[in-house]
Design goal:
Layout lengths: L16 E7 L2 E6 L4 E4 L4 H10 L3 E2 L3 H11 L1
Parallel strand pairs: 1-4
Antiparallel strand pairs: 1-2, 2-3
Length: 73
Protein backbone atom coordinates (compact mmCIF):
# COMPACT_ATOMS: atom_id res chain seq x y z
CA UNK A 1 0.00 0.00 0.00
CA UNK A 2 1.19 3.54 -0.71
CA UNK A 3 2.79 5.76 1.87
CA UNK A 4 0.04 8.42 1.80
CA UNK A 5 -2.85 6.79 3.65
CA UNK A 6 -5.37 9.63 3.20
CA UNK A 7 -6.70 11.85 0.41
CA UNK A 8 -7.81 15.48 0.98
CA UNK A 9 -11.55 15.87 1.73
CA UNK A 10 -12.14 12.09 1.66
CA UNK A 11 -13.31 10.75 5.01
CA UNK A 12 -11.68 7.32 4.85
CA UNK A 13 -8.12 6.04 4.89
CA UNK A 14 -6.80 3.72 2.21
CA UNK A 15 -6.69 0.92 4.78
CA UNK A 16 -10.51 1.02 4.99
CA UNK A 17 -11.08 0.63 1.24
CA UNK A 18 -11.70 -2.56 -0.70
CA UNK A 19 -12.54 -1.57 -4.29
CA UNK A 20 -13.81 1.27 -6.43
CA UNK A 21 -15.66 2.05 -9.63
CA UNK A 22 -16.04 5.38 -11.38
CA UNK A 23 -18.85 6.82 -13.46
CA UNK A 24 -18.49 10.35 -14.81
CA UNK A 25 -16.45 11.85 -11.93
CA UNK A 26 -18.38 10.00 -9.21
CA UNK A 27 -16.42 7.32 -7.40
CA UNK A 28 -18.35 4.45 -5.84
CA UNK A 29 -16.17 2.91 -3.17
CA UNK A 30 -16.62 -0.36 -1.32
CA UNK A 31 -15.34 -0.27 2.23
CA UNK A 32 -13.94 -3.34 3.96
CA UNK A 33 -16.79 -3.12 6.49
CA UNK A 34 -19.29 -3.76 3.66
CA UNK A 35 -20.57 -0.21 3.30
CA UNK A 36 -20.61 1.68 0.01
CA UNK A 37 -19.69 5.37 -0.19
CA UNK A 38 -19.79 7.87 -3.04
CA UNK A 39 -17.23 10.61 -3.50
CA UNK A 40 -16.79 13.41 -6.02
CA UNK A 41 -13.22 14.67 -5.71
CA UNK A 42 -12.06 18.08 -6.88
CA UNK A 43 -9.50 16.28 -9.07
CA UNK A 44 -10.79 12.90 -10.25
CA UNK A 45 -7.51 11.93 -11.91
CA UNK A 46 -5.47 12.56 -8.76
CA UNK A 47 -7.94 10.60 -6.65
CA UNK A 48 -7.79 7.65 -9.08
CA UNK A 49 -3.98 7.77 -8.97
CA UNK A 50 -4.07 7.78 -5.15
CA UNK A 51 -6.45 4.79 -5.11
CA UNK A 52 -4.27 2.81 -7.51
CA UNK A 53 -1.03 3.67 -5.68
CA UNK A 54 -2.76 2.60 -2.48
CA UNK A 55 -3.50 -0.81 -4.01
CA UNK A 56 -7.28 -0.38 -4.15
CA UNK A 57 -8.91 -2.65 -6.74
CA UNK A 58 -10.54 -0.92 -9.74
CA UNK A 59 -13.57 -3.06 -10.59
CA UNK A 60 -13.78 -1.48 -14.05
CA UNK A 61 -10.24 -2.42 -15.10
CA UNK A 62 -9.44 -5.33 -17.37
CA UNK A 63 -6.99 -6.67 -14.77
CA UNK A 64 -9.78 -6.97 -12.18
CA UNK A 65 -12.05 -8.75 -14.67
CA UNK A 66 -9.27 -11.12 -15.72
CA UNK A 67 -8.44 -11.95 -12.09
CA UNK A 68 -12.12 -12.62 -11.31
CA UNK A 69 -12.37 -15.06 -14.23
CA UNK A 70 -9.20 -16.84 -13.07
CA UNK A 71 -10.58 -17.17 -9.53
CA UNK A 72 -13.92 -18.52 -10.77
CA UNK A 73 -12.16 -21.24 -12.60
Amino acid sequence: MGTNNTFPDFGHSAAELSAFAISLDVFIISLKNGKIVRFIPKDANQFRVWLRKSGIRDVNSNESTTQLHKEQG
